[in-house]
Design goal:
Dihydrodipicolinate Reductase, domain 2; 2 domains; 8-stranded mixed sheet; 26% strand
Length: 324
């Protein structure tokens, strides 16, 4: 294989800017086909993005001989089935987060990839951002000494009735489709970065509840992790807060590192009373650095940037947090 010719299953909103155009912007990569169950929307997407082929049947895209790799960008309830179909066709898979509807499905996807010797990568793309690679560098260089604690606060106001009436938001709070609520939609990015920073874990615990009853999914989650390294993590996700907050602080014996996951482009490092701020430019296509690494991996030119086993491990943490 000299070039990755991608087919997208699920060319919805997430692919318009975040990922879709990037497949044509990285070396040795091209987007050649897209699929959406709504034929008119699939055709419209293909026309606007100048893609030669479109389908409203995933099997036809998977079996298109021009397609040699599959990107799955549907809601989580169909990730496992599409991934298995692609792997059974001998085609490597790049799958959106959360990796699957639940831990069992994610674990099965990872196991099938190993059994069939098919490459599988998970779209925990923030680990390839320059900002978070800098955080990792600071941790590894012990810029703030020995790491003791990571503390995450993520609060959002409740979805409005108007927002809940749209499919764009409604499926994200339907556990049958998303696996849970907004926690399942957003926390995989945050938790994967904790894995990227601190590695394997000893213990994971948490609680979850539905405090306001605006939808059937739980709207509050808290979690604690003890990493094998001795680092402790504590996180709180509240989706009915009056004031939004997106903050993570990593505390060490000599200082702290602070940043946001979704709403900022800076890292603040405090050591010995001195403050240093690192600023990064926003990315036009947020998945482009990760897609470049996945392409290199599929072409046997680089290691897997996020394996199926790693993606499944994040699903396990989420399951432990929510007890579901």
């Amino acid at each position: 294989m000299q070039k990755i010719n991608w087919g997208i299953i699920g060319c919805g909103d997430v692919t318009e800017i975040k990922s879709g155009p990037a497949f044509n912007k990285v070396p040795n990569s091209s987007l050649v086909a897209v699929m959406r169950r709504d034929a008119a929307k699939a055709a419209d997407y293909a026309e606007r993005h100048e893609i030669a082929n479109w389908y409203n049947d995933a099997a036809k895209l998977i079996n298109d001989p021009k397609v040699n790799a599959i990107y799955i960008a549907t809601p989580p309830d169909s990730h496992e089935a599409y991934a298995l179909a692609a792997m059974n066709a001998g085609k490597p898979v790049y799958v959106e987060k959360p990796m699957a509807l639940n831990y069992a499905a994610a674990k099965n996807m990872a196991a099938v990839a190993v059994e069939k010797k098919i490459k599988l990568s998970v779209a925990h793309y923030r680990r390839e951002w320059p900002l978070f690679k800098k955080v990792k560098q600071l941790i590894d260089e012990k810029a703030i000494g020995k790491i003791l604690l990571a503390r995450l606060e993520f609060y959002k106001p409740p979805l409005t009735p108007a927002e809940l009436s749209t499919n764009h938001h409604a499926w994200r709070v339907n556990p049958a489709i998303a696996g849970g609520g907004l926690f399942h939609d957003l926390a995989p990015h945050q938790l994967d970065l904790m894995y990227y920073f601190f590695g394997t874990v000893q213990k994971v615990t948490g609680i979850t509840t539905n405090q306001c009853g605006n939808y059937i999914a739980d709207d509050l989650v808290t979690g604690n992790i003890l990493f094998e390294s001795g680092v402790a993590f504590t996180g709180a996700w509240c989706f009915n807060a009056a004031i939004a907050s997106d903050h993570c602080e990593i505390v060490g014996t000599k200082g702290s590192i602070s940043f946001s996951f979704f709403n900022g482009n800076t890292i603040t490092v405090i050591t010995n009373g001195n403050t240093n701020i690192f600023t990064f430019e926003a990315l036009q296509h947020v998945q482009q650095p990760m897609i470049e690494k996945v392409v290199q991996y599929f072409l046997d030119k680089a290691p897997n940037p996020c394996s199926g086993e790693e993606g499944a491990e994040i699903m396990r943490w989420m399951q432990e947090f929510t007890n579901k």
